[in-house]
Amino acid sequence: MEIRKANIKTDFEAVWGIFKAVISTGDTYAFSPDTPKSSLPTYWFAESMDTFVAVEKNEIVGTYFIKPNQPGLGDHIANCGYMVAPDHRGQGIGKLLCEHSIRFAKEQGYSGIQFNFVVSTNASAINLWLKLGFEIIGTTPNGFRHVDRGFVDTYILYKALTTDQI
After folding, report:
1. Residue 51: which H helix or E strand, with range?
2. Which residues contact 129 (CB under 8 A, 6 or more apart)?
3. Pure H helices in 29-112
4. pLDDT of 29-38, one tens digit each?
5. Residue 66's closest CA among 166, 164, 163, 161?
């Protein structure tokens, strides 16, 4: 498995395929299931982001972005979003993407990573983030309109990357 920087020109269609498949279920991301393809550059390839893809046997099987969580005085904390192709879930790709993002964040000088919006019913992602050292630091009651379950909570997760924050 190779994780490399994404190229919007050559990787766009594969990333769109993953993005569309993930958001179409309406159960893990705030993006509307009918988000148009034309929005992908803003949501996943913006200038303020570094975007990566996981490649296995010449196929893009996962992707993530990393960016400052906030501009200016909040730019020392990273924010990330991860997606794995549905037919490649359960193979450890999400873990590899997250571990890569942690190393990249440290290399870039971020002092922590914050996930602002993790749907509480996304148990597999939450369990993975907790195993990788993230902590749930907050809850937004009824913060997400799950397509099947109605209103469910969202969590804010955080992981310190420097010893002066631990």
Report:
1. strand 50-56
2. 98, 115, 118, 157
3. 40-44, 93-107
4. 999 999 999 9
5. 161
Q: Which residue has the tokens 């990787």?
A: 11
**How far is 147 from 44, CA to CA, in rounded Å?**
23
73, 129, 154, 120: CA torsion to nearest 10: 180
Q: Which residues have C-beta within 8 Å of that of residue 150, sequence separation ≥ 6? A: none
Distance from C-alpha of 152 to C-alpha of 143, rounded to nearest angstrom: 6
For residues 106 and 161, is the Cβ–Cβ distance under 8 A? yes
Hey, is 55 helix, strand or coil?
strand
| Run means of pLDDT, 10 residues per run, the chain, 166 residues | 97 98 95 96 96 97 98 96 96 97 97 97 96 98 96 98 67
Number of domains in the chain: 1
CA distance 86 to 144: 21
Residue 77 lies in domain: 2-165
Kindly report whether the global pTM for this prediction surpasses the value 0.85: yes
Between the CA of residue 133 and those of 101, 128, 155, 166, what are the distances in Å?
Answer: 13, 9, 15, 12
